[in-house]
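If you are new to this repository, start here. Below is one unmodified record pulled from the training split, so you can see the exact layout before writing a loader.
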Amino acid sequence: MLATNTIQEIQCFPGLSDTQLEKLCAIAEEKNYPKGEFIQREKGEADALYVVKQGRVTIEMTLPGNHTISIYTVHPGDLFGWSALVPPHVVTASSHCEEDTVALALPREKMIELFKQDVGVKAEVFEFISRAVGKRLKEARDQMSFLLG
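And here is the target side for that same chain:
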């Protein structure tokens, strides 16, 4: 179990009470990844939501012709792997560590069970996810505009 202040320090779920943070910390796993490692691979099973504590993770997509393009960089306090909480739970883009990274993994099954117990946690997590998805869509649109001229 993580200390409650771990998630508070990352400032990713500011709307949660101390009790709710304790519930989240009880299921979170702190994981270390070396530079160059893939945390998730496109089209694989999405089994956890991740929040970056330290380091930098690039989100990459494979385009036709087997070309890979970086679509977003995740920094401390940001999340990735939201597909774990959205059916069909398939990774839509790979996550690649640009430097040594520490991330909090929030396992899908445990998160779903927590959501059933506390809808306030679910609301805050999905609000955080919606902000992240919005940022990614803007980045993707900006990149497409640049590439298409």
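Two things worth knowing about this chain: Residues 4-148 form a domain with the Jelly Rolls fold (CATH 2.60.120.10). The beta strands are 29-33, 38-40, 48-54, 57-63, 67-74, 79-80, 94-97, 101-107.
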